[in-house]
Amino acid sequence: MPFLLSAVVVLVGLFIRLRISESPVFEEIKETHTEDRTPVLDVFRTDGKNIFLIAGMRLAINTTFYGATVFALSYGTEQLGIPNSTLLTAILVTAAIGFITKPIYGALSDRIGRRPIYAAGSIMGALVAFPFFWALETRSVILIFLAYFVAINIAHNLNDAVEASFFSELFGARVRYSGAALGHQLGAAVTGFTPLIAGSLSALGGWPLVAAYAVVACLVSALCVFLATETFRNDISEMEPAEREVVAQP
Questions:
Q1: Domains and their CATH numbers in the chain
Q2: Confidence (pTM)
Q3: Predicted confidence band at 246 (pLDDT cuts at 50, 70, 90)?
Q4: In the Cβ-directed half-sphere of 122, how many Cα atoms lie within 13 Å?
């Protein structure tokens, strides 16, 4: 039923997307007929570094989320005997709180920058990895809810609130979609296996190995943030120098 009902969400999303106008910068590109005919090739040539940095930054956001929801839900119920309803309620409550925390983090990134917000989320993900499982081990409802709040509403949401703007702003207008999408999906392809990886590590050495895996993933993301360029003051309507070279070529 959830799968079938998701068709409604798809239709709603399609309706909204079809009614949203393109941004002025893309409209200008269309009007001047300067669209990039090979955006995928050109973005690798001009901004390949940013694609892989985005893939690395995605490690923290997906590892934290999938670890706290998919893996922890299975581990908590099957290995620790925590009622399934307790964990599901914690996930639903923290997801709802995200409607409040994400806009706050996004607005804050407009003032202090994308990098500090994303780095804070990645570092917090590393810091909360072991305490999260310690909280599950206690089987205390209060500590479990607190652990989920920190893991989802602070660590994960700090990343999630700014990734769309941060990743898009790393590229010029002519290759923006291709660059952000490639980096995003490359990182997702790797971290999408987090529940399977966590399950295998748990079978080998218990939850400490899972927590250690999360720590490493989050620290890699923090390093990628450090290597990325701050973008929150960039004028995204301007054409990047590398793009001008591509346009100038016959």
A1: 29-248 (1.20.1250.20)
A2: 0.85
A3: very low
A4: 25
